[in-house]
Amino acid sequence: MTSNIVVYGGSGALGRAIVSHFIKQQWAVTSVDFNANQEATTNILLEKSDTLEQQGERVVGAVSGQVDAIVCVAGGWAGGNAASKDLFANSELMWKQSVHSSLVASHLASKSLKAGGLLTLTGAFPAQKGTPFMIGYGMAKAAVHQLVASLAGPDSGIPADAKVNAILPVTLDTPMNRAGMPGADFSSWTPCSEVAETLYGWATNAIPVTSGKLVEIVTKDNKTTYTEK
């Protein structure tokens, strides 16, 4: 029987790496994003004009049957402190990209995730404490961290024995990050393909997962460690 995964944010840099890895492992992969991922088995296309409720209805209505894993890697980054002229716009964007997508993925898990399945959301390492130069981003990612704790509790609505966690990367090695920070130390950036391999290990139970944990992803000298918090 073919295993199934839903990748929320499947056309982003990390999303593409995850889709590609699971396809190579002969999983059926559904990508959810504003743009199609041609490598995915199925695409669910979102509309930028969708409200949160409309996005939820669109995604849940398009997923048929039960899935083994749901991974939400949708998101983005925007800076700005409390005095920034873009504070409100950037904060609203960060909330939509990280919190709305995580909420829809969680609701989908309540409807379609198999018992014992995996739900992984995306937080951020810096959001474990204050982020004064990127307030909207930090608030949104901290909300995702709280969501994980809520989902791992009793009567959260997700299936029995499901595992829920969040990845907390520092900096992912993506073309956009390289273009924006050309002078950075790339040996401290985490390759997207490596994260995809780890997610596959979690989804297949080859790598143990503790539900409710935030998993710090730290790369130093091209070596990455995954630490549950």
Describe this structure in words.
Belongs to the short-chain dehydrogenases/reductases (SDR) family. Its EC number is 1.5.1.34. The protein is of the alpha/beta class. It has a single domain, classed as NAD(P)-binding Rossmann-like Domain (Rossmann fold), CATH 3.40.50.720. It is built from six helices and ten strands; from the N terminus they run βαββαβαβαββαβαββ. The chain has an eight-stranded mixed sheet with strand order 3-2-1-4-5-6-9-10, sandwiched between helices. It has a two-stranded parallel ribbon with strand order 7-8. α3 packs parallel to α4. The longest helix has 26 residues. The radius of gyration is 17 Å and the shape is globular. It starts with a strand and ends with a strand. The model has no long low-confidence stretch (mean pLDDT 95).
The strand line-up of the biggest sheet is 3-2-1-4-5-6-9-10
Looking at the structure, the CATH topology is: Rossmann fold
How many structural domains? Answer: 1
Counted by DSSP, the helix tally is 6
Largest sheet: 8 strands, mixed
What shape does the CA trace take?
Answer: globular
Distance between the termini: 34 Å
Total beta strands? 10
Order of helices and strands: EHEEHEHEHEEHEHEE
Radius of gyration: 17 Å
CATH architecture grouping? 3-Layer(aba) Sandwich
Mean pLDDT: 95
Subunit structure: Homodimer.
Pfam family, one: adh_short
EC number: 1.5.1.34
Protein name: Dihydropteridine reductase
